[in-house]
Amino acid sequence: MAGDRDGNGNYRGSATVTITATDAQSGVRTVEYAIDSGGWAPYPGPVRVGAPGPHTLRYRATDRAGNVSAEKTVTFTVVASGSDACPDSDDRPTVVIGDDDTGVANRDTGNGCTINDLIAEHADYPDHASFVRHVEAVTAPLVANGVLTRRSQGVIVRAAARSEIGG
Which residue, 16, 22, 51, 125, has fewest beta-carbon neighbours within 10 Å? Predict the structure, then answer.
């Protein structure tokens, strides 16, 4: 766990969780994690959690022989850092574009803005292609920073492409 902590041990603004797994016999094939009540996802690297509140991160590994480790957990609390870039956040539990609920968790991106805030489906776009390019552009760094998996990004971009937003 990494991040700026307050006097109570809470993480200010965000916490970053790094998972390591080893297997001396056959080697590690995959590592997965899940945040709070979310589903399992491939571990892309350090996971940053910025949504204020208590959190539980679950994790497990599978070795090359197919053995799955026992689920382990780490619990922590994130408190606001005082710099909320989106004070009126779209805090729906999942990313929604138009009428399409993607099922992807609408996570805080680290500065008080959610994924839905960054997508900004109600902003003005000159045409539909511009909106889709915008969604691709705002989700790419979220993949690089471990907020989204590539698969989740693809689900969101496809929902943007199916929408009628823009123009």
Answer: 22
Instruction: For 38-67, write each residue's pLDDT tens digit.
Output: 888 889 888 888 878 899 999 999 999 999
Domain 11-79 belongs to what topology? Immunoglobulin-like (2.60.40)
Half-sphere exposure at residue 80, Cβ-oriented, CA atoms within 13 angstroms: 8
Q: Residue 145, Cβ neighbours under 10 Å: how many?
A: 16
Rounded Cα gap, residues 120 and 113, in angstroms: 11
- Domain layout of the chain by residue ranges: 11-79, 94-162
Residue 143: which H helix or E strand, with range? helix 128-144
User: What are the Cα distances from residue 44, in Å, to 3, 7, 34, 87, 144?
Assistant: 19, 30, 12, 29, 9
Read off the pLDDT of residues 15-43 as tens digits, 9 standing for 90 and up.
Answer: 899 999 999 999 999 999 998 888 888 89
Position of tokens 């552009």? 137
